């Protein structure tokens, strides 16, 4: 027994014309629009950031590894129409006049840098110029501090291995200085071809090789896909997140926030869909009873309605996709005017997924309502009051919206933590809100005895069905909660968050300050009103893990090699530095602390080491065995000096240490840097202003993204309100007719209706404020790691907003209710 | 026995009332011959609608058996009964019960589609012409008068050429003029199609046109002709 799709189409057409599906369609439109807009926007931002990040790796894509880059990879890049360059870096040592100096050698081929520019000085001191080429054959470009350490001057000869170089320029800025931009051995940059001749690039050189490519987005992506299977364990592709840990972590957090916000709109739309579907199903009951009389079985009836909704989902979903792209492109236009730099383009990847998610959302949230149609018995056609069949496993249907939501959540945010919070929170939240509403209703019932007749009528409607009233109130509260979270709480959280990245966040790192220079450097800055704290640091190497000499080839994570083979910067700390939090183990206490080390999780992970493992470190001639006693998570986006590796004070007592500080200089104060360079030529000045500017740019883009989501959330919230109110409108219309027939005048009828809406709004507002405050706190402490104390303003805003919104939304149906002729009671029995 | 298209044997129907079970039909034994017209009358609340609901398989009795074309429908579950009804049973109700969202034509097509008729549209059109609504095919129920709506319902009821047509007070909501037109239509189609008609009515004129008459009081058959 089937009901033809032709019938489903006719049904859809007619239900559409009768306006029954409008609320359902609008909810779906908003949800699909939101999903599309957010994911299209995400795509655009991702692309734009990927391009902006190009400067950080001096290319669009970098393939890096411990072996020389195979020649055919270069050929591959060239045939793909990409510009390419090769780079090799390795630590080395220079001896000159009895001085030993650790250096970081970098060999570059012609074409380097492919993105960004080097800033060099051909005279020192002298004017700086930006160039998009590297040293020519026989030239060496070096950092200025190497000159002073070794007593060199521009034009002097420098010996590297068996090769001689002329020191011809000083490097002031190098775009791809490295993942950790505080790599502190001074740079010596030469031609890669010269290095190959020097014999320094042998198998024992511990060199890191990289292929840089740049070109059109499409060609780069093709190249990436082509090269990916060839990488093996020796090579890896470096993208934005690895290229820039700081930017990456900010972006990650921001994307989570947008995803979270989008989930709000989706959840609200889901509720509006569920409520509208409930009304749709209620109106279909007679029709279903008829169909059953004519011989349709339950599956056929359910199939018919699922098909009607599926058709609707495809139709409206397509419009939603178009709407999403439209809204997103408007936001992007605004963004173009606000932000400097290129904004990238959107892809069409989002369209298909958004449409699919729309179908999932609509079916997931409406099937529980549709399933109630299975309880309709055909006898209802003959006897209105006939009891409905008890639906077995009815509650199982509520798994569907949860599953749909989970799917949608995972599509929005890959952060399981956030997804769990939002999902668990919203389900538990809705139930808790219902509970709270029921309790408030009870309390109100107890204290409202003896109020006037209109009030009593109004309240009676709320009290009569505590369950459905509290569901209604909870739905409105949930909508309001999300809106509150996105406005008030978001503003408060953002304000708190931004104080962590204050306008006076450091924009310069000063490194390599000798201990005897500290007082002088400090004086220079304190006189100008710039304060700084100095952190000691030293450079060493990792030589053993649990007694074994580590072999980078043994580690699947290619990042392990830089930890095993590169120079490590470490520091000493008495107390856990700010911006760090303990993830495992204990911070050293008062007791014996010798032989302990604390690692940052992101540093420890690639090596697979844990609490209790033994690491051997070498600094100069000293070696130290240390047990990992704690693992920290480090907030890098504070731009305070932070170290992957921390020792208790007193470890390596003989090791020469230098000092590191981060300062914030306003534009006019930057002349201080000249004084600094003159007075303390060996101090290394690192400009992080450029990186900061990029972080700020990301925050700006993210804020725009949030506004985009916010619009959709407000629309979805309004739909929930309208849907809930219209779901009970039929009952209200009928009641009004009865009351009128019994002699109740318009004024008193209005008063009773207003009472109902006022109380409903006030309750919903209270519940929402409580919920928003709780969620805000959880988000603050668990996700954003900031302090947040909800205030009374929240309650005030929430209640007045709820009352106002409910009252406004009720106006739409009010006229119909008030205008109901009492004769209606005669028509419908 | 096999002459009967519909047969009820020892049927009782109880419902749960506020003060324990309430018997609304008791000891019903009856047979309905193929192609016959049967009228059920009785005071309001005597159980007429309940009875035809049971005969049509819309509901199940508490005790007893009901056979449709020799199949014991009381042994089938709800979906099986529904499938058995498709194309075999027609209905006409007091309050018409047309689907508000479908046109007259689409309303008539509906049971044809459910019975998987190949040319549902064509047949539906012919049936509407037959009941005199050839000009109103694409009108919605709201745009039709009560009498016209009931004629659509009759066309819908006969469209599948059912073995049995149940009509529960088909003229109850109509004025006398419209009622007599509906009456005529119902009986002429019944005769033409050789359908078994089971009719509930208070209308004595209508009752007299039937070969068989049953009278219910307090859930029992008190009179049979
Ligand atoms: N599901 C039910 N629960 C309780 N009582 C019921 C139920 N169905 C029917 N009844 C009762 O059974 C009796 C018979 O109902 P039924 O609808 O069959 O009467 P009727 O003869 O069709 O009356 P009318 O001429 O008014 O339509 C009535 O008293 C009714 O209240
Ligand atoms: Mg009746």
Structure notes:
The complex is a heterodimer of chains A (829) and B (225). Chain A is α+β, with helices and mostly antiparallel strands and 829 residues long. Chain A folds into three domains: 5-50 and 247-499 and 695-828, no CATH class; 67-233, no CATH class; 531-663, Cathepsin D, subunit A, domain 1. Chain A has 24 helices and 21 strands. In chain A, strands 1, 2, 3, 4, 5, 6, 7, 8, 9, 10 and 11 form an eleven-stranded mixed beta sheet that branches. In chain A, strands 13-14-19-16-18-17 form a six-stranded mixed beta barrel. In chain A, a hairpin with a 2-residue loop joins β7 (157-160) and β8. Chain A is elongated and about 110 Å long. Chain B is of the alpha/beta class and 225 residues long. Chain B has seven helices and ten strands. Chain B has helices spanning 48-55, 78-85, 104-114, 120-130, 146-159, 176-193, 204-208, and strands at 4-17, 20-33, 37-41, 63-68, 71-72, 89-93, 164-168, 196-200, 212-217, 220-224. In chain B, the strands form two sheets. Chain B has a six-stranded mixed beta sheet. The A-B interface holds A 1-4, 6-7, 10-11, 14-15, 18, 286-287, 290-300, 377-379, 381-383, 386, 389 and B 49-50, 52-53, 56, 58-59, 78-80, 82-89, 91, 93, 97, 99-102, 106, 109-111, 113-116, 168. The complex binds adenosine-5'-triphosphate and magnesium ion. Magnesium ion is lined by residues 48-49, 168 of chain B.
Mean pLDDT of chain A: 79
Bound molecules: adenosine-5'-triphosphate, magnesium ion
Give the assembly state of these chains. heterodimer
- Can you tell me the overall shape of chain A? elongated
- Beta-strand share of residues of chain B: 25-35%
User: What is the count of distinct domains of chain A?
Assistant: 3
How many strand units of chain B? Answer: 10
Query: Over the alpha carbons, how many angstroms does the gyration radius of chain B reach?
Result: 17 Å
Decide which structural class fits the backbone of chain A: alpha+beta
Strand content of chain A: 15-25%
- Work out the helix count of chain A: 24
Radius of gyration of chain A: 34 Å
Mean pLDDT across every amino acid position of chain B: 88
């Amino acid at each position: 027994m089937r009901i033809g799709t032709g019938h489903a189409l006719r049904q859809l057409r007619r239900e559409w014309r009768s306006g029954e599906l409008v609320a359902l369609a609008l909810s779906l439109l908003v949800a699909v629009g939101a999903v599309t807009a957010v994911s299209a926007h995400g795509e655009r931002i991702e692309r734009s950031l990927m391009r902006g990040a190009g400067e950080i790796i001096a290319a669009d894509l970098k393939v890096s590894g411990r072996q020389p880059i195979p020649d055919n990879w270069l050929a591959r890049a060239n045939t793909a129409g990409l510009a390419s360059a090769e780079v090799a870096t390795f630590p080395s040592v220079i001896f000159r006049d009895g001085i030993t100096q650790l250096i970081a050698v970098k060999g570059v081929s012609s074409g380097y840098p492919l993105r960004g520019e080097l800033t060099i000085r051909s005279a020192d001191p002298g004017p700086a110029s930006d160039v998009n080429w590297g040293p020519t054959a026989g030239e060496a470009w070096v950092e200025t501090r190497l000159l002073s350490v070794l007593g060199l001057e521009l034009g002097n000869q420098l010996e590297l291995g068996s090769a001689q170089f002329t020191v011809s320029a000083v490097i002031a800025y190098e775009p791809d200085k490295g993942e950790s931009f505080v790599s502190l051995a001074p740079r010596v940059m030469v031609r890669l071809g010269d290095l190959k001749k020097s014999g320094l690039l042998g198998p024992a050189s511990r060199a890191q090789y990289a292929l840089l490519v740049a070109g059109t987005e499409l060609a780069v992506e093709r190249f990436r896909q082509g090269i990916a299977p060839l990488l093996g364990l020796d090579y890896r592709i470096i993208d934005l997140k690895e290229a820039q840990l700081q930017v990456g972590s900010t972006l990650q957090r921001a994307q989570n926030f947008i995803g979270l916000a989008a989930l709000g709109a989706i959840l609200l739309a889901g509720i509006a869909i569920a409520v509208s579907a409930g009304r749709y199903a209620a109106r279909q009951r007679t029709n279903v009873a008829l169909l059953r009389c004519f011989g349709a079985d339950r599956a056929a009836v359910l199939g018919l309605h699922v098909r009607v909704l599926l058709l609707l989902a495809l139709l409206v979903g397509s419009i939603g996709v178009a709407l999403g792209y439209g809204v997103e492109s408007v936001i992007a236009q605004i963004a173009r005017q606000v932000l400097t730099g290129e904004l990238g383009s959107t892809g069409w990847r989002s369209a298909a997924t958004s449409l699919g998610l729309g179908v999932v959302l609509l079916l997931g949230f409406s099937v529980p309502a549709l399933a109630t149609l299975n309880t309709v018995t055909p006898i209802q056609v003959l006897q209105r009051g006939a009891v409905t069949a008890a639906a077995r496993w009815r509650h199982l249907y509520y798994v569907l919206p949860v599953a749909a939501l989970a799917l949608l959540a995972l599509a929005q945010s890959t952060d399981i933590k956030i997804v769990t919070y939002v999902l668990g929170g919203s389900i538990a939240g809705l139930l808790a809100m219902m509970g709270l509403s029921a309790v408030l209703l009870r309390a109100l019932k107890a204290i409202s005895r003896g109020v006037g007749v209109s009030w009593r009528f109004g309240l009676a409607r709320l009290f009569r069905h505590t369950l459905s009233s509290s569901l209604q109130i909870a739905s409105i509260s949930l909508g309001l909660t999300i809106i509150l979270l996105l406005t008030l709480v978001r503003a408060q959280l953002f304000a708190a968050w931004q104080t962590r990245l204050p306008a006076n966040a450091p924009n310069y790192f000063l490194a390599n300050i000798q201990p005897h220079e500290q007082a002088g450097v400090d004086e220079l800055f304190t006189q100008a009103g710039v304060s700084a704290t100095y952190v000691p640091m030293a450079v060493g190497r990792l030589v053993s893990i649990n007694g074994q000499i580590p072999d980078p080839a043994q580690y699947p994570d290619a990042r392990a090699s830089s930890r095993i083979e590169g120079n490590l910067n470490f520091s000493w700390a008495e107390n856990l530095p700010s911006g760090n939090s303990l993830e495992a183990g204990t911070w050293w206490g008062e007791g014996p602390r010798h032989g302990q080390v604390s690692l940052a999780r992101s540093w420890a992970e690639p090596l697979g080491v844990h609490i209790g493992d033994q690491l051997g470190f070498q600094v100069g001639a000293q070696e130290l065995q240390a047990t990992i006693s704690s693992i920290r998570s480090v907030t890098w986006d504070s731009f305070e000096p932070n170290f992957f590796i921390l020792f208790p004070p007193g470890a390596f007592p003989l090791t020469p240490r230098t000092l590191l500080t981060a300062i914030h200089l306003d534009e006019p104060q930057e002349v201080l840097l000249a004084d600094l360079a003159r007075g303390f030529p060996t101090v290394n000045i690192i400009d992080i202003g450029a990186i900061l500017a990029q972080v700020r740019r990301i925050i700006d883009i993210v804020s725009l993204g949030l506004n985009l989501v916010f619009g959709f959330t407000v629309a979805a919230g309004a739909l929930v309100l309208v849907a809930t109110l219209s779901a009970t409108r039929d009952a209200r219309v009928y009641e009004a007719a009865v009351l009128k027939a019994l002699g109740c005048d318009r004024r008193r009828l209005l008063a009773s209706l207003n009472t109902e809406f006022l109380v409903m709004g006030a309750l919903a507002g209270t519940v929402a404020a409580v919920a928003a405050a709780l969620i805000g706190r959880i988000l603050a402490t668990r996700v954003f790691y900031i302090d947040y104390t909800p205030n009374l303003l929240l309650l005030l805003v929430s209640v007045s907003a709820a009352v106002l919104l409910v009252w406004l939304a009720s106006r739409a149906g009010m006229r119909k209710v008030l205008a109901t002729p009492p004769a209606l009671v005669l028509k419908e029995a | 026995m096999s002459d009967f298209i519909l047969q009820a044997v020892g049927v009782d129907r109880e419902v749960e009332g506020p003060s324990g079970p309430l018997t609304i039909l008791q000891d019903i034994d009856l047979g309905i011959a193929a192609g016959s017209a049967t009228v059920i009358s009785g005071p309001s609340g005597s159980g007429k609608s309940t009875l035809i609901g049971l005969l049509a398989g819309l509901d199940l009795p508490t005790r007893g058996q009901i056979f449709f074309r020799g199949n014991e429908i009381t042994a089938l579950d709800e979906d099986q009964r529904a499938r058995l009804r498709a194309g075999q049973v027609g209905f006409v109700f007091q309050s018409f019960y047309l689907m508000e969202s479908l046109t007259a034509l689409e309303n008539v097509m509906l049971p044809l589609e459910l019975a998987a008729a190949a040319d549902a549209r064509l047949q539906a059109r012919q049936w509407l012409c037959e009941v005199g609504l050839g000009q109103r095919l694409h009108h919605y129920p709201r745009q039709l008068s009560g009498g016209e709506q009931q004629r659509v319902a009759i066309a819908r009821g006969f469209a599948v050429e059912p073995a049995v047509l149940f009509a529960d007070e088909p003229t109850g909501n109509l004025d006398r003029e419209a009622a007599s037109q509906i009456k005529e239509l119902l009986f002429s189609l019944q005769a033409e199609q050789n359908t078994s008609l089971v009719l509930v009515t208070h209308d004595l004129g209508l009752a007299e046109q039937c070969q068989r008459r049953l009278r219910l009081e307090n859930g029992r058959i008190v009179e049979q002709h």
